[in-house]
Specification:
By secondary structure, the chain is mainly alpha-helical. 52% of the residues lie in helices and 5% in strands. A hairpin with a 2-residue loop joins strand 1 (44-46) and strand 2 (49-51). The longest helix has 30 residues, at 74-103. The chain binds zinc ion.
């Protein structure tokens, strides 16, 4: 059987949704021998049993005689996570570009102008590396260093 497998990033987002508890897991999520194409995220419930879209299509005896209860589309939450990750990547790319521009000798006033903000706002936003890029100790060192160099 051939399944259309999602990329690694999508697999990670599916795990994140399941771990968060906001989406129910498919009954077959941990039974790849039974349902190798299980998508993991529940879209319908038959009594106590939750199924993903693929397992629902292949359903035979599960939930027989029960009315299906449609769950909110977990794909919509996956889209939110994808957009969030895109924003994070864009933020990193912007920080890198600003850093390169500074390295090339452009003034904060020029960066403020192209970013549609003030010199001061651009400097405050980009003068420090993203917190996520640094350990807490590195971040504190950088904050102290930035405070000294701003004077
Ligand atoms: Zn499934």
């Amino acid at each position: 059987m051939t399944c259309v497998r999602d990329d690694t990033a999508t697999t990670a987002r599916v795990k994140e949704l399941l771990t968060s508890g906001v989406v129910s897991e498919c009954f077959y999520a941990h039974r790849p021998q039974d349902r190798p194409c299980c998508e993991g995220l529940g879209v319908v419930r038959y009594g106590p049993t939750t199924l993903c879209a693929d397992c629902d299509r292949r359903r035979s005896a599960v939930g027989k005689g029960m009315s299906p209860v449609r769950l909110p589309d977990p794909g919509a939450l996956l889209e939110v996570l994808t957009a969030r990750d895109t924003c994070r990547q864009a933020e990193l790319a912007l920080r890198h570009a600003v850093s390169s521009a500074r390295g090339a000798g452009h003034a904060w006033s020029a960066l403020g102008a192209v970013l549609g903000t003030t010199r001061q706002a651009a400097q405050q936003r980009f003068n420090e590396p993203a917190v996520a890029d640094l350990s807490t100790a590195d971040h504190l060192d950088n904050v102290r260093w930035s405070a000294r160099t701003r004077r």
